[in-house]
Amino acid sequence: MIKSHIITIGDEILSGHIIDTNAKWLSEKLNSIGLKTTKRVTISDDKKQIKRTIKSSINSSDIIIVTGGLGPTNDDITKKTLCEVYGSNLIQDKKSLDNISKIFLKRGLELTKKNRDQALVPDKCKVLNNEFGTAPGMAFYENNTLLISLPGVPYEMKSLFQDKCISYIKQKFELPYIYQKTIKTTGIGESWLSDIIKDWENEIEEDIKLAYLPSLGRVKLRLTGKGENINVLKKKIENQVEKVLPLIKKYVFGFDDDELEDVIGEILLKTKKTISVAESCSCGNVCKTITTVPGSSNYFIGGIIAYSNDVKVNELKIGKELIKKYGAVSKEVVEKMAEGARKKFKSDIGISTSGIAGPSGGTHDKPVGTVWIAYSDKKNTISKKLNLTERRDLNIILTTVNVLNLLRLKLEENRE
């Protein structure tokens, strides 16, 4: 087994000012090419600690990925410390300097000595030119151990790793074939899902691993196979997918990189339907999520955040007496909101949300987390009550996922 370590360097991460998303992302990418991450560690910008940690990893792993500490400021000492570890001297890399000069010229900024010094690299490293920033990556390969040092800025790190590092790793190590398939579900919790598929899970071949990956409102099932023949792996996993799908079909919204909003957008485009939104407790998050999809202007007409009852009355034409009788958080009002949005924006479909997001505002009959969602088209209007959490941030996300899933189910039903 080829063992990998990930070392994150930065006082700002240890202090909690910045979240380390790089390590998670790198673990996933390493896993996808057949490498097991056996250790992840975050350390401060301290020379002794950096040297000690790197030397320990060199002695106990095959591949080390280091991120952070490559900037132009005085606390960025990773490059100089690597020189000491590998007995190197800093030399200027012309390609890196040309890249830095172009960036500063394009932005109309003065190129200072500190910026020029970012083109200095250890003479024993392979330079990984950074096309999106001023800090080049570096790779050291000694005694069958590979260390790669990357900038901490996430988009720079990701670009370098995908474009330069994966191919270099494959040159140095013979990696097994990996094939993964992810089934994405919503509308069911992890434990209930596992109960439905337990017999299928027990019969999965030993060389295929199943992982449950839950998140807010969603559960992913990831099947992973590792071996010497990619075609055999692919066939085995696809066969397992075919077996399990009939058991959970109504909960499956997509596979691999599919997102709920992407799937909905594809259906709306294919059926040439348009949609509008009226939302209260979700605070505009439904509209925001729908419009993250490129090309959503082809089916998304508009939305309204009907937070106050006055907006519900004046903009969505909901009767004051209806709100007074049933309350804003009710089946009757949320259905009228969906219908009102559809009519106001002249769209084929309207969806809506109304609820008590919290942390205040709840009553005995309608506690915090009580949410109603609705769907309306020209033929019918339906609604659903949700009993969510006491946390406002979670309720906004869960409301969004649930109303989008209600939309997906109705779109698929109508298409069938």
Describe this structure as you would to a colleague.
The chain is 43% helix and 25% strand. Strand 7 and strand 8 (145-150) form a beta hairpin. The relative contact order is 0.08. It has 416 residues and is of the alpha/beta class. The model has no long low-confidence stretch (mean pLDDT 95). The protein has three domains: 3-172, 3-Layer(aba) Sandwich (Molybdenum Cofactor Biosythetic Enzyme, Chain A); 177-255, 2-Layer Sandwich (Alpha-Beta Plaits); 260-415, CinA-like (Maf protein). The protein starts with a strand and ends with a helix. The strands form four sheets. It has a six-stranded mixed beta sheet, sandwiched between helices. A five-stranded mixed beta sheet has the order 14-13-15-16-17, sandwiched between helices.
Q: What structural category do the secondary elements indicate?
A: alpha/beta
Number of strands: 17
User: How many domains would you count in the coordinates?
Assistant: 3
- CATH architecture label name of the largest domain: 3-Layer(aba) Sandwich
The CATH C-level name of the largest domain is: Alpha Beta
- Uncertain stretches of 5 or more adjacent residues: none
Which percent range fits the helix content? Answer: 40-55%
Strand percentage, roughly?
25-35%
| Continuous helix count | 16
Radius of gyration: 27 Å
Mean pLDDT: 95
Which homologous superfamily in CATH is the superfamily of the largest domain? MoaB/Mog-like domain
Provide the CATH topology of the largest domain: Molybdenum Cofactor Biosythetic Enzyme, Chain A
Instruction: Outline the biggest β-sheet.
Output: 6 strands, mixed
Separation of the first and last Cα atoms? 48 Å
- Widest sheet: strand ordering: 2-1-3-8-7-6
Overall outline? globular
